[in-house]
Structure formats: structure tokens, C-alpha cells
Amino acid sequence: MSELLIDTITKSYKKYKALDQITLQISPGMFGLLGPNGAGKTTLMRILTTIVEPTAGTITFGDVTWKQPEAVRQLIGYLPQKFSLYKHITVTEVLTHIATMKGMTRRKEQAVADVLEKVNLQDHRHKKIKELSGGMVRRVGIAQAILHSPKIIVVDEPTAGLDPQERIRFRKLLRQLGKEATVIVSTHIVEDIESICDTLAVLKKGHVIFNGSLQTLTEMAANDVWEMEASKEAFFDAIDELDIISSKYENHRYRYRVVSTNPLPGAKHVTPNLEEAYMYLMGQAQR
Q1: Which of 71, 131, 153, 210 has its CA 20 to 30 A from that of 241?
Q2: Which parts of the sequence belong to the ABC transporter domain (predicted)?
Q3: Which band of pLDDT confidence, cut at 50, 70 and 90, is reported for residue 265?
Q4: Other beta carbons less than 10 A from residue 269's beta carbon
Q5: pTM of the complete model
Q6: Measured between alpha carbons, how far is 230 from 249 in angstroms, rounded to an integer?
Q7: What is the third-level CATH fold of 4-213?
């Protein structure tokens, strides 16, 4: 399968650069795009899905370039963060209507049946959208995105608003889709990336500040993360003095982790998790 090549993509709005020379090489499988609100993730998603055009730069996938928007739309399935459906018709009716809008004239009914099985909604196909849980509606969203068997699937904030069980089910579904396509997950929730992605890029203020494996990111922070323990009073005194990246309160004491290039009195060296490594990276990028 081809790689998705994003080469020096820039998007400017008058004097403001939402993206500044973004370059990524995305292989088949699960790829995460992580960053705070305003980092440029949604702008990049909108460019990838041909909703907006870049100011400069090129994107290619095999022999298809993003100068050919109609060809690109045949390659891509998209589930935006805000996804609404007609609430008073059934799941099957919604997907059949969307298949028609996509120009699918042959095997439309079979395609709908196939995607319902993939997203495990075949037993709910006759339910109206208003009768579904939030997780089921998101699965209908994925179903419409993969109706035409796209080679690239773009998902924006996939688990936003889902309860913990639905979140786990949805991540499992995305992971399965990643075995057959390139799946790009854009989110500010580190746990989503940690659960399902193989590689990731971190964006901040329109720039890529990291691109690589999850392990590489945690290794970057490995030498500078320390764990400490203190009373509630001492912890709050330390907040303004230390670069605290995580904390937990139990048994009337705080256990917290800090970033420091030098050992701290009473501190224990620890291996960071991905969220702590991400916080470390964001802190380093501010310096």
C-alpha cells in the first residue's frame, strides 16, 4: 500500500499562518496527530479531506495528487468531530442515502450491509438514529466514512463525548480498520493515541515539534522525569517552583512527577508514560 506524503504544507489566513511547512510521511496503519486546541490539527484535516486548499506545498498518495480533488475524495473517508444525522430515519436508510450521495449505484445495498457488519451495528440497522447511544452514532459515522472502501480514513476527535466503555469499543474498531487502510486520528486526548496508534506527530502553533514512534517520544523524556511525594501544603508550595506534569492525591499526600534536568532532593527517577512525555515535549517547546 502507498504512503501518504505531505510535503511542506502551509496554510495562511492573511498574516496568520495556521500551518507552517508541515512535512509528514504516513505509512499504512494507525497514525496519531496530537496537539492542543489551536495547534493546526483541524486545518490539516480539512486540507487532507479537500475542504480547504493549502496556500503552498503538495500532498500525494501513490499516483494521486491533491491537485485532483475528485480523485482524492475516492481515496478518503472522513468522520469529523461534529457529525449530525437525520434523527427520524433508520440506520440503513441513512447509510443508503449517503451511498447515493457518494455516487454509489452498484451494490449499494450490499455495501451498506457490509459496513454495518464491520462496525457491529447489523442488529441495530432498523433503529432510528434518535434511538442510538452516542457510541453507536459515532459507529454510524465510521460506517458512512468507509462505505466506498477508502484507502485513507481521517477521524477528528474520535472519542469526544463517549463514555468509557464506548470509548474502548470505538478504539478497537479503529484499530481493526488500521489493518486495511491508513487511519489518521486527530485528537488532543493522549490516551486515544496511546491506545491505538503506532506512530504520531505532535503539532504546536502550526509546526510539527515531534514525528516518530510512541516509544521514541517517551524515551526523549526518560532522563528528566522524577517522582516526589509531599503533604498537601508542601505540594501547593511547590507548584510555582517546579515543572509538575502529573499528580495524584491519596492517603492525605500528593505523589507527583516533575521535569528537571538535575536530580531533586528526595526525588526518584521514573519512566514517563506517553501523556507525561507529551507534557514534557510541550514544555520544552515553550523554551
Answers
A1: 210
A2: 4-230
A3: confident
A4: 12
A5: 0.89
A6: 10
A7: Rossmann fold (3.40.50)
d(CA 60, CA 13): 23
The contacts of residue 95 (CB under 8 Å, 6+ apart) are: 112, 115, 116, 140, 143, 144, 147
Task: Read off the pLDDT of each residue in 177-188 and give the average, rounded to a whole number.
Answer: 93
Domain definitions of the chain by residue range: 4-213, 223-270
Amino acid at 200: L
Based on the number of CB atoms within 10 Å of its own CB, is 271 exposed (0-12), middle (13-18) or buried (19 or more)? exposed
Q: How many CB atoms lie within 10 A of CB 14?
A: 5
SS (H, E, C) the chain: CCCEEEEEEEEEECCEEEEEEEEEEECCEEEEEECCCCCCHHHHHHHHCCCCCCCEEEEEECCEECCCHHHHHHHEEEECCCCCCCCCCEHHHHHHHHHHHCCCCCCHHHHHHHHHHHCCCHHHCCCEHHHCCHHHHHHHHHHHHCCCCCCEEEEECCCCCCCHHHHHHHHHHHHHHCCCCEEEEEECCHHHHHHHCCEEEEEECCEEEEEEEHHHHHHHHHHHEEEEEEEHHHHHHHCCCCEEEEEEEECCEEEEEEECCCCCCCCEECCCCHHHHHHHHHHHHCC
Cell numbers representing residue 252 in the block: 492525605
pLDDT in tens, 199-215: 999 999 999 999 999 99
Q: What is the pLDDT of residue 113?
A: 93
